[in-house]
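ok so i was messing around last nite and threw this chain in just to see what happens. nothing serious, just curious
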Amino acid sequence: MILRILCVVALLLSANFRAQADETVAVLTKGLKNSCAWWMRGPNYKVAGEAYILGFWDGANLWNKYNHRVGENESARIIYAEVEEACAGHPSKPLFDAAVEVYSLHMRRDLGLNR
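result:
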């Protein structure tokens, strides 16, 4: 009897972990086509969006022929806050567009250009 109960508990726990893992994978693979509202939807989405922003930033620096170190003196938290500000009032704005906006601002600032 105890063995049956343990088996049922183990099955329930594995199903819960599997569902959570599936949701996490789904969240992590949708950064490009998701909006600012998607990013603010909850903790898993927030983490996935922040990972997406850092990945975008790293890739943009790799391909930037003028400066491969845009934003190097800023913390990730500041960059996230600026992307969040770019999203403010525009929940349907793609997260990609908000990240591009902030990256461009930092690039112009690093080059000594006005906003």
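not much to say yet. The helical segments are 2-28, 36-39, 43-63, 76-87, 95-110.
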